[in-house]
Write a structure and sequence with these properties.
Helix content is 70%, strand content 0%. The chain contains 18 helices and no strands. α3 packs parallel to α7, α3 (33-55) runs antiparallel to α8 and α13 (256-281) runs parallel beside α15 (323-332).
Length: 426
């Protein structure tokens, strides 16, 4: 049933960009290329930790843990599960108006940067000092570090997408593009040095230092005239309530649940579906494909093609403004799940370990992940029926839906391993 006060046209167009928003916001976003650069850097930082972990998945799985399965699953599955679970918890908490009003935006952002850096250093130390006699303890500590990375990433992504949602769809795309760029960087690092001890030390140390650069980036964003004009970093409390004529960021009247149920659910469901499909088979099933020596290449290929997919909406010919079309593309991606499972379970068959097939499937899989998810994240805060004061929480909801898809996919990924061998072939 349509929500009270909504026109029929609004209901049927839910999930598509409001023409007025599309017309006005690109002009505002063009006023400061520096602000967009800050969003690129922020996006890069929010996902750099996870991308570096992905690049060294094979090193952790085969070199450190020797392909061993813990409680029925290997490193890749528990790694993605720990990351996705804590990302979901933190982002769910940050959808609360009470929590957001009591914890300053700057504090949330800076704590996320510091915790992300500490988690990467901790994970590096786990890899360096875990011995064959302490595999179980090392595994538990490593998963704990990845979980801290997830918690920090969850807070940081909620802040970045929430702020972008206050401003314009182009800023949400900048965050997604920056995240994809971190994947390209990590894939290059992984392909070059993932088998080297010094490479691991360099990669994790560099990533930890870069995470801390997020702190001065927020300072620069705070001082940007566009952010100041929008009042986007002012707490949305009753005391700070403003009029429509003075700022587009108002004190919202509807709860997060009401906004989600009445307007934001189509694209929230879409982006969740994209990442549910992706994490059902990546990195878990992918890391178990044969031959094991090709796995680092496939992971690097995913990171590169995912980046290209996130970049694609910058080309006007590839930009889709209709929500139902984007949702349909997300639904089609479910076909990848049985295909990847078949390639793992039928690994003795010639076709299953054919290099050309594996590369072609990964190219389509990764590109569609970046492309469809970016389209959905751009559409989310600008859906019709979402008022100016609700765009920040919708941006946060979209980020929450994204990481919920990661968690659900990771959970389903463990199920895909029922009946499989106890040790990876590596």
């Amino acid at each position: 049933m349509p929500a009270a006060g909504m026109e029929a046209s609004e209901v049927w167009s839910i999930g598509s960009i409001d023409p007025m928003v599309e017309e006005l916001n690109p002009i505002r976003s063009a006023e400061s290329r520096w602000l967009q650069a800050c969003f690129y850097i922020a996006g890069f930082a929010t996902l750099l930790g996870w991308q570096i972990i992905l690049s060294f998945t094979h090193s952790f799985d085969c070199t450190l843990f020797r392909g061993k399965r813990f409680a029925g699953a290997g490193w890749a599955f528990w790694c993605s599960m720990g990351y996705s679970l804590t990302v979901n918890i933190t982002q769910l908490v940050l959808t609360s108006r009470t929590v957001v009003s009591r914890i300053p935006f700057t504090l949330r952002w800076n704590v996320a940067a510091v915790c992300s850096a500490l988690s990467l250093i901790g994970l590096m130390l786990c890899h360096l000092y875990t011995t064959p006699d302490s595999l179980e303890m090392g595994f538990a500590l490593a998963v704990a570090c990845v979980s801290l990375t997830g918690a920090a990433s969850g807070i940081w992504q909620a802040c970045a997408f929430g702020l972008a949602g206050c401003l314009a769809p182009s800023y949400a795309q900048a965050v997604m593009f920056g995240q994809g760029l971190s994947g390209v960087f990590s894939s290059i690092v992984g392909a070059a040095v993932s088998s080297s001890r010094l490479g691991l030390i360099f990669s994790f140390t560099f990533a930890a230092v870069f995470e801390l650069l997020g702190i001065p980036v927020l300072y620069a964003m705070n001082r940007n005239p566009i952010v100041q004009e929008a009042g986007a970093l002012k707490p949305a409390t009753v005391e700070n309530q403003v009029t429509p004529s003075s700022s587009p960021v108002l004190t919202r009247a509807r709860s997060s649940r009401e906004i989600l149920v009445q307007n934001a659910w189509p694209q929230a469901l879409t982006v969740a579906a994209v990442f549910t499909v992706s994490f059902t088979v990546f990195p878990g099933v992918t890391s178990r494909l044969s031959p094991g020596s090709r796995v680092p290449l496939l992971i690097s290929l995913f990171q590169i093609m995912d980046f290209l997919g996130r970049f694609a909406p910058k080309c006007s010919v590839l930009r889709i403004d209709e929500g139902p079309v984007v949702s349909g593309l997300a639904a089609l991606r479910i076909l990848f799940v049985p295909l990847f499972i078949a390639m793992q379970r039928e690994s003795e068959q010639t076709w299953a370990h054919n290099g050309v097939l594996q590369v072609a499937v990964m190219v389509a899989f990764a590109f569609s992940n970046g492309y469809v998810s970016t389209l959905s994240m751009m559409l989310g805060p600008a859906q019709r029926g979402v008022s100016a004061d609700e765009r920040e929480p919708v941006g946060t909801m979209m980020s929450l839906a994204l990481v919920f898809g990661i968690w659900l996919g990771s959970l389903l990924g463990i199920v895909t391993q029922v009946g499989m061998q106890e040790v990876n072939t590596c």
